[in-house]
Design a protein that fits this description.
- With 159 residues, this protein is mainly α.
- Helix content is 61%, strand content 3%.
- It has a two-stranded antiparallel sheet.
- Strand 1 (127-128) and strand 2 form a beta hairpin.
- The mean pLDDT is 84.
Length: 159
Amino acid sequence: MTRRSLILLSGLGSAALLLAAFGFQHIGGLAPCAMCLWQRWPHAAAIAIAAVGAAVPAAAIAVLGGLSMVANAGIALFHTGVERDWWEGPQSCTGAAGQDLGAMSASDLLATDTGPRIVLCDEVTWEMLGLSMASWNGLASVALAMIWFAAAMRRRTAG
């Protein structure tokens, strides 16, 4: 495959993963946690980088795309560790999620039909074959990084 083809393949891979995330959210009803949202940004960046790389298939562009997926794999690994209790996550999306329960009235605390639904980062809401969405995203990001870096190593004459 040419460098341009590999760049486009990588960008399409990120687009597919981002569309799947939106599908799980809007069709499947699985609201994302804060760390899930963090993992969407490198895919959005990779899509933009792929658009530039389609026009200018330079090795440096491919390296940038690969680095975005390495960053995403790192976020996904961190999120997986939080889900599996290997380490603590940010206070804003784990445990009490930063809510001041002492400031709430008894009726607010007991109400089941009011207030925002908080999605905690340390709870797995969906998994397949024992791996969470964060874990699957991490594996996919590593695979996409490998494709990006393969594109970077292609000779300029190859596309």
